[in-house]
Structure formats: C-alpha cells, structure tokens
C-alpha cells in the first residue's frame, strides 16, 4: 500500500511542473501587459514610470529567466504580491477566499450524493419503469441547464417575488451584531440558493452514473450467487450491489473537482460571494498577473491532489487496484 | 456498397425508434432553420432602438417584450441563435481537429510519443476549464472569434483520449496489417484506413461538444467577456436580465429557455446517435 502511495506521489511531480508551465505560458503569451494596465489607469505615467514598473515586476527579463525566478519562489510557497491597489501577498488573498468556495462545494457535493444515490438505485431497480423514465427526463434537463440562468430564475422567484431568501452575499449587513445562533441562521439562508444551484447539474450526472453502475453490478455473478443462496432482496441490493456500485463514485468525485472549482466563477459572481471564483474573475478583469497565475496553479494542484486522494482511497477499499 | 446501405438503414431504423433521439434531432433542426431564416423570421431589426418602448412587457407587438433600449427581444434572440450555432460548430471543429491529430499520433506510434501526449492531456485536464478559458479570453480582446478559439483549444482532451483508445484497438486489426503489407505509409494508414473506422465515437462526442460549447459561450457572454453588445447573443441578453431583475422577468426567462432547449437538443441527438450506432451500450 505504501509503495502504491509513494508511486502516485512521484508520478505527480511531472504533472505539477506541467501545470506551472501552462499557467505561466497562458498569461505571458497573451498580448497586453500589466504595465499597460497600470499606466492606462494613470494617464500621467511617463515612459520612465513604465520602465520602473517593469523592473519592479521583473517583466524586462527574458521569459525563461522570469519563469525560473517564479518557480524558485513557488517552491517556497511565495506567490508574489498582487498587482492590485492593496498589494497584498497572493497566497493570503487566495487562502482567505478558498475556504468559502470549498464550503459551498462540499455542501453541494453532500447534497448531490445524498439525493443522487437513492435516485440512481431506485431507477436501476426497474429500468424503463415510470420512475426511471421520469428521472431520465430530469437528467437530460439537468445536463442542459445553464447554471447562471437557473440562478437568475431562482433569484427572481425566491428573492424578488416571494422574498424568502437573500439574493447576494454571504451574510446580512447587520450580521456582525448577531449572536451565534441567529448568525448561523443568517449564513444558512444566504447559502441555500448557491448550494442548491451549484449542485443541480451534478445531481443529474451522479444519478445517471449511479443508475448505470447499479445496472452493471446487477449483471455480476456474485449477485446471482447472493440471490441463489436465498438472501432477502433488500440485503442483495443494499449490501452486495450498492457497496460495489458505490466504489467508482470516489473516482468520479475526484474527476468532478475542476468542474466544481471552475463553476464557482459563475455562481460566485452572480450571488456576490467572496470566494475563489470571484477573486479569479476580479483579477482577470484587472490583469493581476500574480493572482491569476497563483489561482491557476493552486486550482490545478488542488485538482491533482483530489484525484490522487480519490485513487488512494479507491485502492484502500479495493485491494485489486493496489495489487495490480 | 450494398452492405454500407444496409448498415445506414439499420442505423436510421434504430434512431427513429428512439423518441428522445428524434425529439433532439427536431430541436436541432429548428435551431438551424431559425438561424438560416433569421432575417425572414425576425419581426424587427434586432438593433433598432425605440425609446418609446423601453422595457415593455410582452404584448402582441413584442411577444417576448423589449430590452432597456427598446429593442425587440424576440428578434434579438432569433439572431442570437446564429451566434450560438456558429460558436458551437467552430469551437467543436477546432477541438476535434486537435483531438483527432494528437489522439491518432499517440495511439498509432505509442511509446514516448504516446506518453508525452497523454501526460499533456492529463495536465490540461487538471485545470478548472473555466479558469483557463477566462484567463486566456481576457488577455485577448473578447470577441466571437477568440471565444471560438479558446473554447476549442481547451476542449480537445476528451476527443484525444477517445481517438487514442480507438487507434490502440484498431492498429493491430487485419485490415491495417494488410494495408501495411501492401506497402502503405504511416500517414496513409492513419488517415485513410484507421481514422475512417474510428469516427463513430468522435461524432458522438462532437455532437455533445456542440452542446457544451453553446453553454460555455452563453456563460462567458453572460459574464460580459463573451460576445460583446450590441451583437445579440442569448448570454448577453441574460446579462441585461440580471441588471433588470426586479422589473423585467422576460429578459431573463426567454433567452435562458432558448439555451436550455438547444443544449438539450444536441445532447439528446448525441446520445441518440450513440445508442443507434452501438445498441449494446444503451444500458
């Protein structure tokens, strides 16, 4: 087992290097420089001022030198300082936003799993039955649903017309003065729509996936064996079939990470949630190179890490994987 | 020749029996017709500003209402269909070209070519795709052409994996060995012999890819970094909907419905093609 973990960790290194190279290339090969941006904002900036800015950020050096310097700092977890007015370290900016994005994604994943698994299992019990047919329609609509549109509709219905839920931010303006319990309620009310909406598409995907896993497992010999030795149908379904059908879900959870993190750009900007997605959108708009590069690298590394954790937990529960 | 006709007929027969697939095909057909006949169908010029009709509710004159400049929303949506289709097809064309090229090289030559290409695919897949698209798009000027390019350049990895898998299984088959024995060169074998037999999964994934590209374009335009006003696109009409959330629901409802139906159409069509090509996969 430890050998397996070690092998996976070593295998991550070239991928990590690749991630930094792509992040660096994307931003430096595109026309338009951060110096342009800062001097456009300040029409009085002279050519000398531009030069000074270029020196300060090391933008006058050749690309490979810039890259090596950047990597040298990355290894020490120094992502540089933001180009924006606050000039704060990029790592601080990202680490204060990341927990919010992770919280929302974790909540919506929990929601997805707790709803999608029963749907998938139930649909697989009677393929092409009434329940299965109606969930198939739901699944296709879920796949085709533009998340931001669903968000708009919910904001109009629940926020504007019914007035049940707040439509932006993470807390009410008076949240500071609330005691623990009302503060929690306030936070929960703000989270309802973002969590439900960011989970919607995933719900469709996972229930479809669970359904086909269950159908596949039902074909296996050990299910026939379990039935033949006279186990009750519920034991066959929940103990023998479900356990085996759940295993690949771990891998899919890992694979869905980049989609979830990427999707946060959309719903965080709609609901004005100060998370990683919003930070990324703002830095892209301001051409804040260090923050964009930092967010790209951290976003991709988190995905890599998630995939590896998924593989390791898969190997933990399924000995066939680590033996091969 | 006869055999091929027989296979085509078999495909059509299976496709027609699948109600979801046929309705998907119809949705796509409608989208095409609307795009081609846009100038004939649109009741107004999509750019015509009418200050006396600002944010007018849907009426008989303006079935989907008007926007904040008094432009007819229905007409803007009809012309928006052209944008969605164009972006969808060009982006997928780019993605399929790159994916097929890299996938066939990896699957045909194997060895280190395969390792390098597939590690590159793994790395690209680590990036939250929306992060990558957003970063590139904002450094280029946001325009419809740049969007097509960026969606295509960040969406080829699935096709590459598919094509590679097909090549790995096809390259040892008799017809390839026969072609090689007859003295055919690598390029001829890749493009004439193997690729021709590898297209079905690519077609399915391209159809589903169009749906994905339409969704991405609308999301980018909604965020203000996609198709720029005054060119109408479903996504940028929705932005106006968000700005007038409290007073003009019609700006939010109809364009979103159009996106939903188009994406649904391409998804159903893609799944339909898949199950008609390979009925064993249906479960």
Short description:
Chain A is mainly alpha-helical and 324 residues long. Chain A has helices at 2-29, 34-41, 47-57, 63-75, 90-125, 130-144, 147-161, 180-218, 221-228, 233-255, 257-270, 276-285, 289-317, 319-323.
The radius of gyration of chain B is 22 Å
Average per-residue pLDDT of chain B, rounded, comes to: 87
Number of helices of chain B: 12
Q: What low-confidence regions of chain A span 5 or more consecutive residues with pLDDT below 50?
A: none
Helix vs. strand class of chain B: mainly alpha
The pLDDT mean of chain A sits at 82
Query: Which H/E pattern describes the elements of chain B?
Result: HHHHHHHHHHHH
Q: Quick one: which chains have the greatest interface?
A: A-B, 56 and 45 residues
Q: From the helix content, strand content and strand pairing of chain A, which structural class follows?
A: mainly alpha
Oligomer: heterodimer
Shape of chain A: globular
Spatial gap, N to C terminus of chain B: 31 Å
Count of DSSP-assigned helices of chain A: 14
Shape of chain B: elongated
Helix-residue proportion of chain A = over 70%
The count of β-strands of chain B is 0
Largest sheet of chain B: none
Number of strands of chain A: 0
Description:
- The complex is a heterodimer of chains A (324) and B (283).
- With 324 residues, chain A is mostly helical.
- Chain A is built from 14 helices and no strands.
- Chain A has helices at 2-29, 34-41, 47-57, 63-75, 90-125, 130-144, 147-161, 180-218, 221-228, 233-255, 257-270, 276-285, 289-317, 319-323.
- In chain A, helix 5 packs antiparallel against helix 6 (130-144), helix 8 (180-218) crosses helix 10 and helix 11 packs across helix 12 (276-285).
- Chain A is globular.
- The mean pLDDT of chain A is 82.
- With 283 residues, chain B is mainly α.
- In chain B, helix 4 packs antiparallel against helix 5.
- Chain B contains twelve helices and no strands.
- Chains A and B meet through helix 1, helix 6, helix 7, helix 8 and helix 11 of A and helix 5, helix 6, helix 10, helix 11 and helix 12 of B.
